[in-house]
Write a structure and sequence with these properties.
six-stranded antiparallel sheet
């Protein structure tokens, strides 16, 4: 008799108002969830804060919320922030030295192993980032969920970018 063993994927999805308060709540809820799962907060908390702030600032449409989703598969934490401004894709640009803003995606680019955008049902888009989690304490050969780690380094490169749906944009900082 074959028994299929199903391991639940740790996940969190929450819908929030596209306001500074909603962005702050996204960060607070996500960091508490990461603590509950026993995963490190850095760099995920900073990435979540930036993506949520961008959704509240640039993805804001009156009366439409944004959604934060976190899930873990093997040794990868995937962070997704979906807003209702699919017409405005994020751009990572170098701001002038005296600019008050414009550095958020540079931070995401530096901290995430991979990040990108995926179009959703009109008018939505999802900005996602992935972070490779460290091995479980006391067992350097296994990831946080007990799966064998496929990577021996944290090198970033196109060979690690997962296949994305058509028209998606991915960024792997080098």
């Amino acid at each position: 008799m074959n028994q299929e063993i199903s391991t639940p994927v740790p996940n969190l999805t929450v819908q929030l108002s596209p306001t500074p308060r909603g962005a702050r709540l996204a960060r607070l809820l996500a960091t508490e969830q990461l603590r509950t799962w026993g995963f490190p907060l850095d760099p995920a908390a900073l990435i979540i804060a930036e993506l949520a702030a961008n959704a509240a600032t640039h993805g804001r449409v009156a009366g439409r919320d944004f959604r934060l989703t976190l899930y873990v598969v093997a040794d990868t934490l995937r962070i997704e922030v979906t807003d209702t401004r699919g017409d405005q894709l994020p751009r990572s640009e170098h701001p002038t030295s005296d600019a008050d803003s414009g550095r958020g995606l540079l931070l995401v680019d530096a901290l995430a192993d991979r990040w990108g955008t995926t179009p959703g049902l009109t008018p939505r888009k999802t900005v996602w980032a992935e972070v490779t989690l460290p091995p479980a304490p006391g067992n350097p050969c296994r990831g946080p969920r007990g799966d064998l780690s496929q990577r021996t380094t944290r090198e970033k490169g196109p060979h690690q970018t997962p296949p994305l749906p058509p028209k998606a944009h991915a960024h792997s900082p080098g």
